């Protein structure tokens, strides 16, 4: 019986390795900024932006990118996005207000908040920020506020309920495709409404990562625009939201092997590889595996621009591709990538606090962090962490461990996976989780037990780091303190 722990080696960047290979630097940083600590690299962020901008240059349709800042709380990234020639997608009052305070031009902002109250809408209307409407109540409130403010609002309409393979793609967001035409014709029938609200385009954001679905949704939106043109409406853009795949892992073989071994563990054909043999979505029933892996697809071969390319190449029934129709109909394609712009941008480092053995013989390594400081919205973050040892060559003996956190919850396991290490970490050794910039480090972060939120630091040229650490704290940054290396 094969019992070794399957590896899931992450893709890393030289800047990450230069930190992970330097225990002294890590020790200094954690001493100065506490554990856990988030480190960002702006060059990686800029290079991701550059990849998208270069990609769109090959097409003749217009395009516009908005960085979805919900994926990371740091305002530096919003500023750098703007300075690098793209816009910012905001999803709350604070996100929008902060971007305006950072002097990001309103025409480079979009408001896509799921819930929009009067205060938020008034801010957007006063600053002439494009608002993506989710429902009729919002549209009515915008109209009322426009009259009060004596302003014209610019809006896009979020749509959902596309057909794919004879099934409806259900969503709690947006106006359903079956009723959106009627809504537009009725709501904008009024001259005064038309004067107050300029309807300029459509928006959708689909869950899942199927380029065929996105392509189908784009074709259906283009069909809708064609119909609306006959009624004298002229929407100019389709914003397809975010959800552009990235690749976190080095090896397809490891990714497939991990899933096979997880299934074997559930079938009791090997030792567990997750805490309490958690199936991460797979279920064992009558000695058979059911269900699906409920994690992000951490390995994939069509990330970023190649994922968008595969969407643009989806044909409609007349065999015309999305990109051809965008060009012909002169429709601007907009995107709101969050995670994919943050690929290779962040790491999260934490100090080892203790080691122990539980009643079942599991080795638990307690970290000075909690589970909310590195959490995936999917069933687990499936990347092997990297351990930096203060004494790398002493007492080498392979161990298998689980990493645990500081909350008073039995479930505060930083990763559900068991991790194989070349030796047991000592107290003060450092564990680094890589590629955590998109969602992992911030999205679920809480302050239970009055633990402080982790600090966020930025390195402009981290490989030439060490000595010169300049402090920069931004009071406007919603508790996220930013410090530049
Ligand atoms: C409307 C909208 N736009 C953009 C995004 C960003 O998606 P991602 O970070 O996966 O690119 C999201 C994510 O939930 C979203 O809901």
Give a quick summary of the entry:
This protein has helices at 14-20, 23-33, 42-56, 75-83, 93-101, 118-126, 136-149, 177-187, 191-196, 211-229, 252-266, 304-312, 322-329, and strands spanning 37-41, 63-68, 87-90, 109-111, 130-133, 153-160, 163-164, 167-168, 175-176, 197-203, 237-239, 282-285, 288-291, 332-335, 346-357, 363-367, 386-388, 399-404, 419-421, 430-434, 455-459, 482-484. The protein is an alpha/beta fold. Strands 1, 15, 16, 17, 18, 19, 20, 21 and 22 form a 9-stranded mixed β-sheet that branches.
Describe the structure.
It is a single chain. By secondary structure, this protein is an alpha/beta fold. It has 3 domains: 14-41 and 344-484, Lyase, Ornithine Decarboxylase, Chain A, domain 1; 43-246 and 301-340, Alanine racemase (TIM Barrel); 252-291, no CATH class. The chain is built from 13 helices and 22 strands. It has helices spanning 14-20, 23-33, 42-56, 75-83, 93-101, 118-126, 136-149, 177-187, 191-196, 211-229, 252-266, 304-312, 322-329, and strands at 37-41, 63-68, 87-90, 109-111, 130-133, 153-160, 163-164, 167-168, 175-176, 197-203, 237-239, 282-285, 288-291, 332-335, 346-357, 363-367, 386-388, 399-404, 419-421, 430-434, 455-459, 482-484. The strands form 4 sheets. Strands 1, 15, 16, 17, 18, 19, 20, 21 and 22 form a 9-stranded mixed sheet that branches. An 8-stranded parallel barrel has the order 2-3-4-5-6-10-11-14, surrounded by 6 helices. The protein has a two-stranded antiparallel sheet with strand order 7-8. A hairpin with a 2-residue loop joins strand 7 (163-164) and strand 8 (167-168). Helix 6 packs across helix 7 (136-149), helix 10 packs across helix 12 and helix 10 (211-229) runs parallel beside helix 13 (322-329). It is globular and about 80 Å long. The two termini are 48 Å apart. Mean pLDDT is 93; it is low at 462-480. Pyridoxal-5'-phosphate (PLP) is lined by residues 68, 71, 89, 112, 205, 241-244, 336-340. This is Y4yA family PLP-dependent enzyme. Residues 55-262 form the Orn/DAP/Arg decarboxylase 2 N-terminal domain. Keywords: Pyridoxal phosphate. It comes from Mesonia profundi. InterPro entries: Ala_racemase/Decarboxylase_C, De-COase2_N, De-COase2_pyr-phos_BS, PLP-binding_barrel.
């Amino acid at each position: 019986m094969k019992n070794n722990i399957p590896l899931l080696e992450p893709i890393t960047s030289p800047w990450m390795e230069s930190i992970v290979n330097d225990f002294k630097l890590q020790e200094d940083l954690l001493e100065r900024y506490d554990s856990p600590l988030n480190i960002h690299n702006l060059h990686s962020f800029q290079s991701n932006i550059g990849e998208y901008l270069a990609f769109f240059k090959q097409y003749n349709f217009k395009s516009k990118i908005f960085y979805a800042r919900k994926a990371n709380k740091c305002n530096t990234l919003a500023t750098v996005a703007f300075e690098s020639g793209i816009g910012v997608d905001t999803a709350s009052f604070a996100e929008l207000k902060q971007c305006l305070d950072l002097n990001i031009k309103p025409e480079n902002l979009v408001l896509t908040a799921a819930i929009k109250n009067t205060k938020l809408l008034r801010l957007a209307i006063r600053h002439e920020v494009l608002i993506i409407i989710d429902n009729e109540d919002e549209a009515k409130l915008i109209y009322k506020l426009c009259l009060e403010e004596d302003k014209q609002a610019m809006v896009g309409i979020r749509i959902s309920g596309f057909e794919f393979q004879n099934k409806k793609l259900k969503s709690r967001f947006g106006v359903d495709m079956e009723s959106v035409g009627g809504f537009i014709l009725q709501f904008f029938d009024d001259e005064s409404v038309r004067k107050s609200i300029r309807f300029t385009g459509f928006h959708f954001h689909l869950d899942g990562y199927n380029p065929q679905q996105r392509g189908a949704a784009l074709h259906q939106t283009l069909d809708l625009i064609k119909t609306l043109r006959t009624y004298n409406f002229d929407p100019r853009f389709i914003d397809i939201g975010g959800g552009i795949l990235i690749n976190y892992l080095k090896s397809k073989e490891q990714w497939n092997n991990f899933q096979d071994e997880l299934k074997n563990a559930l079938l009791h054909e090997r030792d567990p590889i997750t805490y309490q043999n958690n199936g991460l979505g797979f279920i064992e029933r009558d000695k058979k595996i059911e269900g699906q892996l409920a994690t992000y697809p951490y390995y994939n071969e069509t990330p970023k621009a190649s994922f968008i390319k595969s969407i643009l190449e989806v044909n409609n029934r007349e065999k015309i591709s999305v990109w051809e129709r965008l060009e012909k109909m002169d429709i601007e394609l907009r995107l709101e990538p969050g995670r994919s712009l943050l690929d290779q941008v962040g790491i999260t480092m934490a100090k080892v606090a203790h080691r122990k053995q539980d009643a079942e013989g599991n080795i638990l390594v307690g970290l000075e962090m909690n589970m909310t400081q590195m959490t995936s919205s999917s069933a687990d973050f499936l990347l092997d962490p990297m351990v930096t040892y203060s004494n790398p060559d002493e007492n080498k003996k392979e161990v298998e461990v689980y990493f645990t956190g500081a909350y008073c919850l039995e479930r505060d396991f930083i990763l559900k996976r068991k991790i194989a290490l070349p030796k047991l970490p000592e107290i003060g050794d450092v564990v680094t989780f890589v590629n955590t910039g998109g969602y992992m480090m911030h999205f679920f972060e809480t302050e239970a037990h009055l633990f402080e939120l982790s600090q966020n630091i930025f390195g402009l040229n981290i490989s030439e780091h060490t000595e010169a650490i300049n402090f920069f704290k931004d009071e406007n940054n919603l508790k996220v303190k930013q410090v530049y290396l």
